[in-house]
From TrEMBL, chain A:
<keyword id="KW-0472">Membrane</keyword>
<feature type="transmembrane region" description="Helical">
    <location>
        <begin position="299"/>
        <end position="324"/>
    </location>
</feature>
<feature type="transmembrane region" description="Helical">
    <location>
        <begin position="33"/>
        <end position="53"/>
    </location>
</feature>
<feature type="transmembrane region" description="Helical">
    <location>
        <begin position="136"/>
        <end position="160"/>
    </location>
</feature>
<keyword id="KW-0812">Transmembrane</keyword>
<feature type="transmembrane region" description="Helical">
    <location>
        <begin position="180"/>
        <end position="201"/>
    </location>
</feature>
<protein>
    <recommendedName>
        <fullName>ABC transporter permease</fullName>
    </recommendedName>
</protein>
Automatic annotation (TrEMBL), chain B:
<feature type="domain" description="HTH gntR-type">
    <location>
        <begin position="12"/>
        <end position="80"/>
    </location>
</feature>
<protein>
    <submittedName>
        <fullName>GntR family transcriptional regulator</fullName>
    </submittedName>
</protein>
<feature type="region of interest" description="Disordered">
    <location>
        <begin position="126"/>
        <end position="147"/>
    </location>
</feature>
<dbReference type="InterPro" id="IPR036390">
    <property type="entry name" value="WH_DNA-bd_sf"/>
</dbReference>
<dbReference type="GO" id="GO:0003677">
    <property type="term" value="F:DNA binding"/>
</dbReference>
<dbReference type="InterPro" id="IPR036388">
    <property type="entry name" value="WH-like_DNA-bd_sf"/>
</dbReference>
<dbReference type="GO" id="GO:0003700">
    <property type="term" value="F:DNA-binding transcription factor activity"/>
</dbReference>
Automatic annotation (TrEMBL), chain C:
<dbReference type="InterPro" id="IPR017871">
    <property type="entry name" value="ABC_transporter-like_CS"/>
</dbReference>
<dbReference type="GO" id="GO:0005524">
    <property type="term" value="F:ATP binding"/>
</dbReference>
<dbReference type="GO" id="GO:0016887">
    <property type="term" value="F:ATP hydrolysis activity"/>
</dbReference>
<dbReference type="InterPro" id="IPR003593">
    <property type="entry name" value="AAA+_ATPase"/>
</dbReference>
<protein>
    <submittedName>
        <fullName>ABC transporter ATP-binding protein</fullName>
    </submittedName>
</protein>
<dbReference type="InterPro" id="IPR027417">
    <property type="entry name" value="P-loop_NTPase"/>
</dbReference>
<dbReference type="InterPro" id="IPR003439">
    <property type="entry name" value="ABC_transporter-like_ATP-bd"/>
</dbReference>
Length: 329, 147, 299
């Protein structure tokens, strides 16, 4: 699904850029979805521009303040400013929307793109024109994949642009799930995984509604699994000391606890849950440890997540083609 | 121009019906030399019968020298079957005879059966060999406007 | 043009590993240039045969060729209209025809497609979902005929249409097919709607071919007889397809192997009588006639 299946053999009178063949048919058949996505994209762009515009104001609203004469803005004035609240709230909402795009995409791909066509027989209508089933599926996946890739990439870039200096007080910490996903290529590969899983669900169920449900469920599972095991996707950094150490805010703490004289590590949660019976003796404690991901781990973690989602997309696409090939002569 | 009426219940082969109806139109003077028969496409569109059937009927008529196909133009009547035009004396005689039969108490079916038996006797080797006569066969003829 | 439209040998298809055979041991040869009726009761395998020929289903065993090649190779040269006439409800009639043009690059005849639509007084701007059953069928036929196929496969094309629409569409279909020299294969379980329109018959029963051949030859090969019930034994040399006794009278459909005794009154069977007799007697042997009759020249 790397290239558009339609071959450029348009009659001379028509513009060479105008879509034709299978590309035209996919765009025309899913025009409503195209309009909705286009509208959502325009709204997202407008929101990001707005966020960028109030970014300075938001930063000023959480800046230092002082009594009159100190040269700083007055604290009374700063509390009255609400730009930071708007900025924080709208940005987090937009980030969530972008991170969740894969769910409606999966439901649509399963339901409208593939499932409904198989259920109503219009897929067979296409296959008895001069189009093979495999080319049909290729176009069905390639056209939305290209548009979604372009749209999601633009959305990620706009998001990064609107977040400016990534002040965690305003934009959220880097390890916050939605912020983590939407500030790099994972946002794109997640959407592609949604598309592929939806299409596979459509081919498996061959009916619109079950396919939409199955596609949605599969994507939800993928999202949650990736979120649950994200911290395991890259080796953590460990720090030990004589006293329990306070990690900086930018660190994603994975585990912390005590190091015993034997060298064994005991997580703190064990003692906090059952402090009397099973907890270690103070005498045995030689020191304290914590494992965490520093902010520098954002890119490795992010790229591994993105890679897994891309692999899922590729596998689901391959399975979809295999299934269609097996079913049709 | 003639319009063919195909009756699927009669058991008479469809192409025979077209041949018979064309001949009837020729006998009654509804088709005259130079008149154009409807094209196979027109007949098929109007009657939903197999195109090969129409072609077969037209070939039969051509073989009998009644019509000729002019390439690219259509099929045209070559000669008429002028034996008994609608107002011929023979028709008048038959009309008289039928009136007498009716007066004698024969109903429509009796007359048809009598007529059929005489026909069978006189024309023993019938053209199409099925030997069946159908009084159901009626003809829908309309003079062509272009004529 | 290829001489043989569809040819199958030992063709079998079953759905699922343990499923019932929808088609079994089918051997048939449909010559090109005919209008062929595929007749049989529901579940006889008509739709399956057409879907295999359209390259939509894989046969479980045996092989089938279309226009001398594998069905998937013949895809651009054949058209298929499924029983429920699937169309995209959100498209207009004009957009549906545009779809045909876009998906059949190089062999799309817009004139034919538009003519078929125009004959039905269809508004090109009307959405498919607002059309009646007859209008939908017309659009589906326009899409199929616009492809100028060498072979047109129609699965129950006229089912659930009123008699007027049925007559009109059949006329349009046959006229367009004749103009393009298209071989038409259409299935139906209503025999009456095919009489007169078709000149080749393929009768399927329980997944097997029962009768195949030029319609006239098949009819000519059978005779309906009535006579005294006691004379049944005298029919030995002939193949009796079906016989029924009412009191002292015997009625039978048979394939005469020679001249018949004078005790019998004979009549030519109608298509419907031929089909019904064969469906009522599943054990009667199949009859497959070759299209030896002089090939009709296309107009």
């Amino acid at each position: 699904m790397t290239a558009l299946a339609a071959v450029p053999t348009a009659p001379r009178r028509r513009s060479r850029l105008a879509p034709h063949g299978l590309t035209w048919s996919v765009l025309r058949l899913h025009r409503t979805a195209l309009y909705i996505c286009g509208g959502a994209f325009v709204a997202f762009v407008a929101t990001m521009i707005w966020m960028y515009a109030i970014g300075d104001d938001a930063r000023a609203s959480i800046g230092a303040c002082g009594s009159p004469g100190s040269g700083l803005p007055s604290c009374l004035e700063i509390t009255e400013r609400t730009a930071d609240d708007t900025y924080r709230y709208v940005l987090s909402l937009a980030t969530t929307v972008l991170a969740y795009t894969m769910f409606p995409v999966a439901a649509w791909a399963g339901g409208a793109l593939i499932g409904r066509e198989l259920e109503s027989g219009t897929a067979r209508l296409a296959w008895t024109q001069s189009v093979t089933p495999l080319r049909w599926l290729a176009a069905k996946l390639a056209v939305p994949a290209l548009l979604l890739t372009a749209g999601a990439t633009a959305a990620v870039l706009l998001n990064i642009w609107a977040r400016r200096d990534d002040n965690p007080n305003l934009t959220g910490d880097w390890y916050h799930p939605d912020d983590f996903v939407t500030t790099g290529p994972a946002a794109v590969t997640y959407v592609l995984a949604g598309l592929a899983l939806g299409a596979l669900a459509g081919l498996v169920t061959r009916r619109a509604l079950p396919a939409a449900g199955l596609g949605f469920a599969a994507t939800l599972a993928l999202y949650n699994i990736l979120e649950r095991y994200r911290e395991d996707l890259w080796p953590t950094v460990s720090r030990t000391g004589d006293t329990p150490s306070e990690l900086p805010r930018s660190a994603l703490q994975v585990e912390h606890g005590m190091v015993l004289t034997s060298g064994e590590r005991v997580t703190a949660s064990r003692c906090s849950v059952m402090p009397d019976s099973t907890c270690v003796n103070d005498a045995d404690v030689a020191g304290y440890y914590s494992t965490f991901h520093p902010q520098s781990h954002f890119w490795p973690l992010h790229l591994v997540s993105a890679g897994i989602a891309l692999a899922v997309a590729v596998l689901a696409t391959a399975a979809a083609f295999w299934l269609l090939r097996r079913r049709t002569p | 121009m003639v319009e063919f009426r195909i009756d699927r219940r009669t058991g008479v082969a469809t192409y025979v019906q077209i041949v018979q109806q064309t001949k009837q139109a020729l006998r009654l003077g509804l088709l005259e030399p130079g008149d154009k028969l409807p094209t196979a496409r027109e007949v098929v569109e109007a009657t939903a019968i197999n195109p090969n059937t129409v072609l077969k009927a037209y070939r039969e008529l051509e073989r009998e020298g009644l019509v000729e196909a002019r390439r690219g133009l259509g099929t045209f009547v070559r000669r008429s079957l002028g034996a008994a035009p609608a107002d011929s004396p023979l028709r008048a005689e038959l009309s008289d005879w039928t009136a007498r039969a009716h007066a004698a108490g024969l109903d429509r079916d009796d007359v048809a059966a009598l007529f059929a038996s005489v026909l069978d006797e006189q024309f023993h080797n019938g053209q199409f060999g099925d030997g069946r006569f159908h009084d159901e066969q009626r003809f829908n003829n309309t003079k062509g406007e272009q004529a | 043009m290829t001489e043989t439209a569809i040819e199958a040998a030992a063709l079998g298809k079953r759905f699922g590993r343990r499923g019932k055979w929808a088609l079994r041991d089918c051997a048939l040869k449909l010559p090109a240039g005919h209008v062929c009726a595929v007749v049989g009761p529901n579940g006889a395998g008509k739709s399956t045969l057409l879907a295999v020929a359209a390259g939509l289903l894989k046969p479980t065993e045996g092989a089938l060729t279309v226009l001398g090649t594998h069905p998937t190779e013949a895809r651009p040269r054949l058209a298929y209209v499924a029983q429920d006439k699937p169309l995209h409800p959100q498209l207009t009639v004009a957009a549906t025809l545009r779809l045909g043009r876009e998906l059949n690059p190089g062999h799309w005849d817009a004139t034919v497609a538009e003519r078929v639509v125009r004959q039905g007084d269809l508004d090109p701007k009307a959405r498919v979902r607002s059309l009646s059953g007859g209008q939908r069928t017309r659009v589906a036929l326009a899409l199929a005929l616009g492809k100028r196929p060498e072979l047109l496969l129609l699965d129950e094309p006229m089912a659930d249409l009123d008699p007027l629409a049925r007559h009109e569409l059949m006329g349009t279909l046959l006229a367009e097919a004749a103009e393009n020299g298209t071989t038409v294969v259409m299935s139906s379980h209503v025999v009456a709607e095919l009489e007169g329109s078709c000149d080749f018959l393929l009768l399927l029963g329980a997944g097997r071919v029962r009768l195949a051949g030029p319609l006239e030859d098949l009819l000519a090969a059978h005779t309906l007889i009535t006579g005294p019930a006691g004379a049944l034994t005298g029919l030995a040399p002939h193949t009796v397809v079906e016989s029924r006794t009412t009191g002292r009278q015997l009625t039978a459909l048979l394939r005469p192997a020679g001249p018949l005794d004078d005790v019998w009154q004979t009549a030519a069977p109608s298509l419907e009588e031929l089909v019904l007799a064969h469906l009522r007697s599943p054990e009667a042997p199949a009859l497959l006639l070759d299209a030896t009759a002089t090939k009709e020249a296309a107009a």
